[in-house]
Predict the 3D structure of the following.
Amino acid sequence: MSNSISISNPNKLLSLEVTPYGAGDKLGGILDLSIFTVATDIKISGLDITGLGDVFPSNLINFNASSNKLKDIPTTFAVPDSILNFDLSRNNLTKADIGEILEAFNTRTNNNVQAISPQPIIDLSLIHISEPTRPLYI
């Protein structure tokens, strides 16, 4: 069975959060974020998203797509200058995928990601281990 979600006027959404509910199938596939042209916050974690497309909203500040099935990041991948929090942790990213993502940040500043001010938080960790008193990210 094929399902789709239709959003009227996606160019008017400032914030988008998609949260799974209950057990079973989750929203998945490739999510084209380019339709959310003015969005500043997008949270699509804990789903079955496999791809994001090539274009992010130009005003995006916070992006969380952790705990999905993302992989095969295209060489055309780019991030907007506005992004400050970027979380793709706990996905199916390969070393090459991580390289493409980091290159997208480097490209913004002529290969000097530390020149971005304020410096963005980029989380590409593959696993999360926590103790009752403190989290440890690897």
In short: Helices lie at 95-107. The radius of gyration is 15 Å.
